[in-house]
Write a structure and sequence with these properties.
Length: about 500
């Protein structure tokens, strides 16, 4: 009898949900669980597309239409339309939503900000769109401009929060220069900003980046923390636009989208014609094995470049496919520029110089980058590693500035597990330092007691690289670079002592 009881207890523990992480509840699911009280007896407009869906596959349109005490009276269409099928850059027309007969007001046509006429009769405008965590993806521009329009018309704005698919820790790239503000770069944030749409809405309001602020309500998620990327959430990815059909496309969009702005006209494709959008880089004149070998030689963590071959329009193409072995730590924005370095190294072609000679217009390139400093650096012949170093001051500044607006913790840091940073780590990583000649392999060990108490003092030995030291001590290369101001990450030397942050 006692044995049977023990077995039953063991089986119960094995089946207990405590053994696995709790599922992420989206803002729309939290709203429903609370009886829609924030929308009770209100006339509601909704900004959404097919990505506005809960884990059961129910759209927010259907959710609100069936909600007791809620009257959904209008839909608002961002870029790509309410159906998500309009191609990037194409105008979205005013329309009627056939399944519901609701009017659809276009926010990517004659206006990109709701007009008073569109908002007339509404008590609240709800935002439920899944974005990509990248500044140039236009949904977040729609977010802030709609907040401003609602404030001007006395309409409440409600955000149903969703995960940042790249995680809440990743901050990469330069801050937007206000002189380059556009619809693909509206807010003074880095290229990859590590905020959910609800947190970003709070920051837009708190920093007064819009002319007028009004009543903002964010319905937060449950069960999400900053260390999670999309693959950790248990949620199914729904295409946010025609060229972002899969989660691999989301990571690739940030890693090679800017590169595509430079390489256009050179014969290089970034997968859109192959039905592999933002997942590969290929051209008739590239050699897959050489490009793969060169890029992998940079030692970028969490990312592998696999040889890629295909035929397109009866012509052979070769290049690399991006394989994210650990999407939490893989650099993204920097990959755009590592590609330029690698192609120049193996072919002798400087794609940026080629684009300049051909008279290419860099207006959109500067807007996407949010500055002309990236173009100036490339014109001066600077490589990816130097660009990464140039962004670090902006990244540090933004980490501090965003703190008051964060809604979610970093549980891995709180539990003492290795994390990219307790508050808001960066994922941008310099190119790896050349390894010294290896002796016998050994795990990296601190050379002395911590000094100061939150750092180890490590002496560089034969075979050490920053990537190896970071892995052995449970930190990132960016953490080490930040702890050693003035250190050249590409020129570490045997006998050099560096500080490595110690994770409590």
């Amino acid at each position: 009898m006692r044995l049977s009881l023990v077995l039953l207890m063991l089986l119960a523990q094995a089946a207990s949900p405590v053994a696995t992480s709790a599922p992420v509840q989206l803002g729309s699911e939290v709203l429903a669980a609370g009886g829609f009280r924030e929308l009770q007896d209100k006339r509601v407009g909704l900004i959404t597309n097919p990505s506005g869906v809960n884990r059961r596959g129910q759209t927010t349109i259907d959710l609100l239409r069936g909600a007791p005490g809620v009257k959904l009276v209008a839909l608002f269409a961002p870029e790509h339309g309410v159906d998500g099928l309009t191609r990037a850059g194409d105008t979205v027309a005013q329309a009627t939503h056939r399944p519901t007969s609701l009017p659809v007001h276009s926010l990517y046509g004659a206006t990109r900000k709701p007009t008073p006429a569109m908002l007339k009769g509404l008590d609240v405008l709800v935002y439920d769109l899944q974005d990509t965590g990248c500044r140039s993806y236009t949904f977040i521009s729609t977010l802030g401009l709609a907040m401003e329009a609602c404030a001007e018309s006395g309409v409440e704005f409600v955000v149903l929060d969703r995960p940042n698919p790249l995680g809440g820790l990743r901050i990469e790239g330069p801050l937007l220069d206000p002189d380059f503000r556009s619809f693909v770069g509206q807010w003074e944030i880095p290229y990859l900003y590590g905020l959910t749409c609800g947190e970003l809405a709070r920051m837009i309001q708190g920093e007064k980046w819009i002319a007028k602020t009004g009543k903002l309500t964010v319905i937060p998620m449950r069960g999400w923390d900053r260390s999670m990327v999309w693959q950790d959430t248990g949620l199914r990815w729904v295409a946010t636009s025609p060229n972002v059909p899969r989660i691999s496309s989301v990571f690739g969009y940030s890693a090679i989208g800017v590169f595509g702005e430079i390489a256009g006209g050179s014969g290089i494709a970034i997968g859109t014609g192959f039905q592999r959008p933002f997942e590969c880089v290929a051209a008739p004149w590239l050699e897959a094995d050489a490009l793969s070998r060169t890029l992998n030689g940079y030692g970028l963590p969490g990312l592998r470049f696999a040889p890629f071959r295909t035929r397109f329009r009866e012509q052979p193409y070769q290049g690399v496919e991006l394989v994210f072995t650990d999407p939490r730590v893989a650099p993204l924005y920097a990959v755009n520029f590592h590609l330029l370095d690698a192609i120049r190294q193996i072919t002798g072609r400087n794609l940026f110089a080629d684009a300049v000679r051909s008279g290419r217009n860099f207006n959109m390139f500067d807007k996407v980058n949010g500055t002309d400093q990236t173009r100036a650096a490339l014109t001066a012949g600077r490589n990816a590693a130097s660009l990464v170093r140039a962004w670090q001051a902006d990244e540090r500044q933004f980490r501090t500035r965003r703190q008051p607006y964060l809604l979610y913790p970093n549980k891995t840091a709180l539990s003492g597990s290795p994390s990219t940073d307790p508050s808001a780590p960066r994922a941008s990583t310099p190119a790896p330092a050349p390894a010294a000649r290896p002796d016998s392999p050994r795990p990296t060990q601190p050379a002395a007691a911590p000094a100061p108490s939150d750092h180890y003092l490590v002496t560089i030995r034969r075979g050490d690289t920053l990537s190896k030291i970071a892995k052995d001590l449970g930190v990132t290369i960016s953490d080490i670079v930040e702890a050693n101001p003035g250190m050249d990450a590409n020129q570490i030397r045997i006998g050099q002592q560096i500080k490595v942050p110690r994770r409590r």
